[in-house]
Specification:
The structure is a homodimer. By secondary structure, chain A is of the alpha/beta class. Chain A folds into 2 domains: 137 residues, Thiolase/Chalcone synthase (Peroxisomal Thiolase, Chain A, domain 1); 240 residues, Peroxisomal Thiolase, Chain A, domain 1. Helix content of chain A is 35%, strand content 18%. Chain A has a 9-stranded mixed β-sheet with strand order 3-2-4-7-1-8-11-10-9, sandwiched between helices. In chain A, strands 5-6 form a two-stranded antiparallel ribbon. The two termini of chain A are 19 Å apart. At the A-B interface, helix 2, helix 3, strand 3, helix 4 and strand 8 of A face helix 2, helix 3, strand 3, helix 4 and strand 8 of B.
Amino acid sequence: MRPVAIIGIGKTNFGAFPDRDLRSLAVEAGEKCLADAHVSPSQVEAYYLGNFAGPSFVGQNHLAPYIAGAMGITGVPCTRFEAACASSGSAFYHAVSSVAAGLNDVVLVAGVEKMTSQTTPKVTEILAGAGDTCGEVRAGATFPALFAMIARRHMYQYGTTREQMAAVAVKNHENGAKNPQAHMRKIITMEQALKGKPISEPLTVYDCSLISDGAAAVLIAPLERAAEFTGRPVKVMGIAQTSDYVALDQKDDITTFRAVVAAGQKAYKMAGVTPKDIQFAELHDCFTIAEILATEDLGFVKKGEGGPYALAGCTRLTGPLPINTSGGLKSKGHPVGATGVGQICDLVMQLRGDAGERQLARHSLCLAQNLGGSGATAVVTILGAL
Amino acid sequence: MRPVAIIGIGKTNFGAFPDRDLRSLAVEAGEKCLADAHVSPSQVEAYYLGNFAGPSFVGQNHLAPYIAGAMGITGVPCTRFEAACASSGSAFYHAVSSVAAGLNDVVLVAGVEKMTSQTTPKVTEILAGAGDTCGEVRAGATFPALFAMIARRHMYQYGTTREQMAAVAVKNHENGAKNPQAHMRKIITMEQALKGKPISEPLTVYDCSLISDGAAAVLIAPLERAAEFTGRPVKVMGIAQTSDYVALDQKDDITTFRAVVAAGQKAYKMAGVTPKDIQFAELHDCFTIAEILATEDLGFVKKGEGGPYALAGCTRLTGPLPINTSGGLKSKGHPVGATGVGQICDLVMQLRGDAGERQLARHSLCLAQNLGGSGATAVVTILGAL
């Protein structure tokens, strides 16, 4: 397999954009990305698009050639990948694999979602389609309820507290306030987070990520060709996608996501690194408890220690392992299909030293974790500066 | 790249199954396929699923791990591919590419759609999502209207007649009547076909494919390992996926699908064969005119000669180039996401000599063409017996 490099990135702002349609968001991200790498549409050999539920949110399907055509990309494979909230993580995994294997050279990978044109109850219903609609969803459990059960069990089993979860929210809002592309640039206090409106106890509105519109894109190529396009390529050191059962009741233990553990182990092995080597990470904080689980499942701390680790400030910009310097799904926003590739863009900005106010001092090795549903899909990527 | 073999196939019947849910159909096809190849779920290294609109038809998304988990397949990449009516053709393309490139060995590829739980107007609306909803669909053009425009132009430009289109329907019903797994096993006469209820003139109900439920699956592996699993492997000799603009008004000429022409040329080149070498084919007859276009675009006849070729009986079981011996989308049924992999299963049955009443005498080299929307995605596959 050939080493693969990221040679360009492009993102729209994440937010609520009533005047923008889905296609225009994806085209903006894609064109920014091509410009970043000085690549023309005719050089793109394949278009891999992550999108969770465009047909349900805006009625448009067949999105890959629809968006690619608007950028002048035709005559190449254009495919949409769907794996719930890990849709563009999955697109990225398949695209990287195709370049590594020598199937393609220059591939544009993107993610997009346009959610805010629907009411919140309708969005919740569409998102619930990523759970088991014949089981848990029919019983009334939407995603906040599923993650509330996970949180309750984690609290019971490991003594995790509401303050520890709130610390994740406070930290992610603090980071997002410094990110000019974030959806909600608002600092919140621990007191506010704890007094948030209950959504599904113990989760308050401050434990839940945002409903957003947005798109992100990255351009990849064989590392050996990277210098043709950019002076600052980033290397994909390890990547893995794996799966588990969809329904919570099929899992032996709901305080750990088996798929995240397995994808992490594979990605570490491929990269030849250990969790201790990772300097910073973008983790899938669809709910605050999910960031705590990921911190544990990826081996950054032992099981049960994710909450105290967050409360102690270890994952802040100034801590030993900054997590979600972008603001995460909580503050940057969570346009579902765009999230996986958006994480990659955020990591690349740090690796390049382009993260502005959020820039870290140590920025040469990092990790992204993208989650689908309540853990049925996981994609873990490890990136390194060159 | 390594040669790739099909080592197992499995299909449900296609039809209207009010008592079956989407997952049970996909599981039935997958389990039949694994049994056909004597492979256990734990041997499957990846699950590639084609599905067009499960979330819109039945509310369930995140389908790949949802279905895989029900078959006992976890801990591996499980991904849904969407490319309109070419969704499972696209899944097959990506899966074959991954095995050819050495990324995977044993991969299960499937397609599924459950359509009949919705009313016909609702199905038509969901299908329209594969067109340009901001343009042609907003103007009122659903797929029968789009293909009616294509038919009208083909009639104007090449003198194609309603009798020639009806000949496609009569032939496909004749073949489907011999297929125990077909949705509508009913012989129709030319007179009936011509007097069918108008849907979008010049197309009558007999020019349109069926709204069906169904699933299909194939198992692939490197050719060098095929003998471990089966005594009668089939070789994937050539395969290509390509794209074009979604909207009809963006195409220079609507009597030809550029993506089909390009995918065909790539697949022929990869296989080292010409159209003359192909003994039989499964072509994407979502409408009768689409089969005529495909016959021309794939080089079996010159442009404009597809209609006379069909009317002369050349594509019947007894003709020089039997097309859609399964009955095609017209009679076998068109559960959109299952169609691409379903075509592959039908070809493998012929190659193995297992096609019963429809069995052809010459059955060593054949082609499948799977179309997305009004030509924005095309997948062409060439298979050979060993």
